[in-house]
Description:
The complex is a heterodimer of chains A (176) and B (330). Chain A contains five helices and seven strands, in the order αβαββββαββαα. Chain A is an alpha+beta fold. Chain A has a domain at 45-150: Alpha-Beta Plaits (2-Layer Sandwich). In chain A, strands 2-5-7 form a three-stranded antiparallel β-sheet. In chain A, strands 1-6 form a two-stranded antiparallel ribbon. In chain A, strands 3-4 form a two-stranded antiparallel sheet. The longest helix of chain A has 20 residues, at 2-21. Chain B has 330 residues and is mainly α. Helix content of chain B is 67%, strand content 2%. Chain B has eleven helices and two strands, in the order H-H-H-E-E-H-H-H-H-H-H-H-H. In chain B, strand 1 and strand 2 form a beta hairpin. In chain B, helix 3 (77-94) runs antiparallel to helix 4 (121-142), helix 5 (146-177) packs parallel to helix 11 (300-329) and helix 8 (199-212) packs antiparallel against helix 11 (300-329). The mean pLDDT of chain B is 88.
Amino acid sequence: MGFIRAVQGLSEALAVVLRHLFRRPVTEEYPEYKRPLPVRSRARIILTRDPDGDERCVACFLCSAVCPVTCISMAGAEREDGRRWAPWFRINFARCIFCGFCEEACPTLAIQLTPDFETCTYDILPLVAEKEDLLVDHGGKNHDYNFYRHAGVTTLGAKGTHINEAPPVDLKSNLP
Amino acid sequence: MPLWILGLIFLVIKLAAVLLVLLLGAAYLVYFERRLLGFMQVRLGPNRAGPLGLLQPLADTVKLLLKEDFVPQGADRVIFRYAPAVVAAMALLIFAVVPFGRGWTYDGKPIPLVICDLNVGVLFVIALTSISVYGVALGGWASNNKYSLLGGIRAAAQMISYEIALGLALIPVVMLAGSFSLVDITEAQTPFPFILLQPVAFVIFFISGLAEMKRIPFDLPEAENELVAGYHTEYSGMRFGLYFIGEYVSMIILGSLVAVFFLGGWRGPYLPPILWFIIKVGVSVFALIWFRATFPRLRYDQLMHFGWKVLIPLALFNIIVTGGVMLAVS
Lengths: 176, 330
């Protein structure tokens, strides 16, 4: 009868919920347990250095141009050896939306976003980060890339000795 | 010391104890409900305020007290202020006739563990549940808000419909016990509690009680996703807290009434009677929270159909059958 099936249905629902009562909760309690985030998580911004220890940022203004909320500002200058650099570099973290466009736009892999999201503060003004706050001593997510080995370099060796350059093919031989 | 002063002192002690236990119980029932609901939903409930979250009711109380206390424009100020108090007061008053333990004796004189052993206790209970309809309907009307008014009207209609089934389900209990007094009803459940003799009446009483307290599955009048918040949309701060306390006290009251009418009150083998009473109330309250975690809510027309066309005829039929069986047995 419909009544019996109705009671059965209700009892099944109640039994399911009662079973759930005795399962371990799936909640991860935040400050005591911090879930490890993937490396590509977009939080605090850093300025990285290349493997030779020099700053990667060449003050090309690409990150500042692509930023949707215009929170990046910098100045460009040239060093004595011809390499460009940024004398000052400022990110306003009160405006930053952590979208990662600057990281995608950067040609030298200088500006990168890290999974460090615990940057809450009660005052707004300390949120404006200068270059000293952003520059780190390591290569961030990529420890091998050095822009100045790939571009802006006069090739001094023979053909085929530059990075990522294949040796020339001998057109006059039959070998592949 | 004259006897009446001693009696008065004991009465005041009983009153203070009952009020304290009920109000603290209601406050911590909020905490337990949130925790239990959490575990039933495979998550943790509130566990940050104090060890295991036990100071959560205190945090809630402080939060509610610190909120802005405003009366909406165009609202009826007097009624708006007093409507929540009606609900909370009626819920607390029902406990005045509930016996929560076997009587003690002090110096040869009996101390009944009930605040007031009315010989029309059942009528008193039903009358107070009827008055608490006022609190809801007036709260909805006094808010000067269409959604609140709709919620209040629906709540009032729902409550008065299910009150009929509530009363009718209690009649076989009264027939079996032979008295309207809750103390007599508890004492009449000697070999078996009435749930074994009147299972249908128990089911009808429990469901009607659920609908009276506007608990899931009958909580459309205060459904958060249907009517904003129903009749208590415009209430904030401690007034809302008072509605809440009223609802949670009435959960405890339903548990005590179920315990007294059907589960044998404070009766039980080894443990002290008060402990049995608390256990029975606890079981009922657990069932209420369990139902809240499980069921979707009834649509309003389904709710009214169920109350009028299913529960009332069933309760009437139950009374006739009970009367017939009692006549045949005697």
